[in-house]
Hints:
The protein is an alpha+beta fold. Helices cover 24% and strands 23% of the residues. Strands 1, 4, 6, 7, 9 and 11 form a 6-stranded antiparallel beta sheet that branches. It has a 5-stranded antiparallel beta sheet with strand order 2-3-10-5-8.
Amino acid sequence: MFLKKIPLLILFLLIGVVSTSQNKNNNFLYEGRVDKLQDNNVILIGTASSVSFNFTGNTCSVSLQSVDHYEHHNYVALVLDGKYMGKLRIEKGQAQSFPITITSNKKVHNLTIYKNTEAQSGNILFAGTTAKLAPIASRKKKKIEFIGDSITCGAASDDSDVPCDKGEYFDHHNGYYAYGPVLSRAIGAAYLMSSVSGIGMYRNWNDENKEEGIMPDLYGNLYLTKDPSKPKYDFAFQPDIISIALGTNDFSGGDGKKERLPFNAQKYISNYIDFIKMLYTHNPKTQIVITNSPMVGGEKGVLFEDCLNKIKDAFKEDKTHKPIVIFKFKPMTPKGCLGHPDVADQKVMADAYAPVLKKLLNEK
Length: 364
């Protein structure tokens, strides 16, 4: 494996040097839900949020720390010169430094660090690099925001390192290979992920909006939490398209133990309409696309689609914004952990959805 730990004393010395270097060069690109700190350090919050930089030479170490109140490990994916290098486990505790082995002879290399776990699994601090930085340009791209639940997170999709019957829930996350990032890379779009496992539009997987926050409650918080001490989301991304895939958990029967009321279509539709109105307030030029779920079928699936049609119809007299588009994923039997789509299933979803979003982007 090309990733190794180095002694903590050396790490702290490196971080001190890096902070000064970063402050002078400012050669980093941050994408997704991130919290920018001093000296170009950043907390990666949301699924597939990332930091990217160019560097010269064959020496590069990055400093990463798992920072959250759960005090457990998290994961990132590393992409070096466009090649996926695998997942990296960031243990709880103090920051660690990870040397990266470079084998190619390119004059200028690019490294991108993607957060593989979701916001609810904790956060990852990028605390710098020892690499000799080179300028990195921000390319203007069409932008898509993906709002959703565990399916959108790429949760329980990857058992390549930890089998499904081992480890913890976040051990099987792979946000890099979730359908949103996969299709965005395929069509050359920038993306932002606002997704939370178990979340719904009016109730969550195993909660009737009593103890946990639903998406309309959490969305406006940068960290996708109800914690008032965290900064608010600034809506600076301004996506060309906002894709919303929420409903799987609203339709869910929960764990079968906790009280679960019958699905309330009126609440779902009403909350969905209000949520879209809020999105329009902050993103007046965006195109809204709402989707069903590949995991909700039968009578529930028919009701799901009926709800989406009524949500779309609620805006049919709206001449200010683009007409809402409905996209229907085909039903699937997911092959991932805990009944979720695995990486291959996510690719199937991405391949089906990409042409629709690409066409909408090209129409803008």
